[in-house]
Amino acid sequence: MTKNTSPTPPSETGRSFKELPLSPAMLAILDQLEYRTMTPIQAASLPITLAGKDLIAQAKTGSGKTAAFSLPLLTKLNPRRFAVQAMVLCPTRELADQVTQELRRLARFADNIKILSLCGGATMRPQRESLEHGAHIVVGTPGRIMDHLERGSLNLEALDTLVLDEADRMLDMGFYDDISFVIKHCPAQRQTMLFSATYPEGIAGLAKKFMREPQQITLEEKHEASKIRQRFYEVSEGERLQTVATLLKHFRPVSTLAFCNTKQQCRDLLDVLQSHGIKALTLNGDLEQRERDQVLIQFANRSCSVLVATDVAARGLDIAQLEAVINVDVTPDPEIHIHRIGRTGRADEDGWAFSICTPADMYRVDCIAKMMGSEPEWHLVEELKTTNDARLVPPMVTLQILGGRKEKIRPGDVLGALTGEAGFTREQVGKINVTDMSTYVAVARNIAREAVKKLSAGKVKGKTVKVRSLED
Ligand code: ADP
Ligand code: MG
Description:
The protein has about 475 residues and is α/β, with parallel strands linked by helices. The protein has helices at about 25-30, 40-50, 65-75, 95-105, 125-130, 140-150, 165-170, 175-185, 200-210, 240-250, 265-275, 290-300, 310-315, 335-340, 360-370, 410-420, 450-455; strands spanning about 55-60, 85-90, 115-120, 135-140, 160-165, 190-195, 215-220, 230-235, 255-260, 280, 305-310, 325, 350-355, 380, 395-400, 430-435, 440-445, 465-470.
């Protein structure tokens, strides 16, 4: 056995979960999820956190932080004790939902572990009622958790694990006071784990105030240069947004995340892309929850080509299969630049990272080059083929079925309806997302119309359902 009190070097990856003091049932679940080896952050942190120690861990998005805190939390949990024993604070509802999903998958190692998501944007009453029925774990945003504490609907007396996920982002969003309020309602005797992508000063402050002799782990950003092909283009300010369309038409990536520095720039870019017939969506604070869900689902299931976002809106989102990242604006912070481009070229896929720069951005580009330790590779916009008139069209279309978790619809019901009576093949059906009120299914573009007809005429889970394409 290794006794691990210092960060594991990145080379020491590929270690098995079996090295850890986990129950056979938990190991079986990990096996089922095809988590064969630990990610570097998991290998470095689990020996510490499973021993009950406080931890501050810094690692980039997509590195497996959720399981890193979920395993110690679940291992300690007593399912027979009906009280909130663990709480995870997240900056946004989307992130809380992702954490809840991962926790639910891992929690299958035991029977009846109840996990509640408590976020703003939903009415309080159903949350209060669910809390009355008892929960073992709550996942939520600081503001909403604070509301429940103030109204007395959430009792944290039995809490023994507190997780601050995406802590830097919560501080960016101005949650410091809310977090402090919530932590002050937690028992002093507890384990606290703090996860963050960057390590700004505020985090040290939080740690000092609320953690006990935390161990600290930092995993260096390591992108294999070969996997991310980075190119810089110099243009005038007036050409910036058109250049995004030109890049997309030339390289034709299926999924692109386009980063802007401001919300206004996001809106302007969306107009430009839409005028080119490119299917683009944006995430911003003005959207209703249902609309935000629809944006993320369509982007993740490949029925939207471009997601336009600010850094704040995009952080932490777990989006696999991103062919390209475009820095529509160059960020003044080189660390943020490295985060942005790290979204592409994941797993075994290659990825493009394009940066559009004006002469005024050159100082920023210099800072990025220094931090990356390599010269920027400059290319000319004129090299890009603009003659390609074929529209950039996403391969899939998202269909919305009215009826979701409340109607007990499961992904298998929808897949069954499409591949059964309707006669489509598995390959023509993409991701299926079930939300409370709706189910979204991606289908190949060329069968979308027929799929709407057949689903409407047939039955899902024994019932007729209303179906529409999100593109109509
Ligand atoms: P982070 O919170 O660091 O951004 P996540 O926890 O969301 O990352 O994990 C990213 C993805 O990796 C998720 O889809 C998760 O299911 C998957 N994952 C996590 N740990 C492992 C593992 N050990 N083996 C394989 N996949 C994993
Ligand atoms: Mg995360």
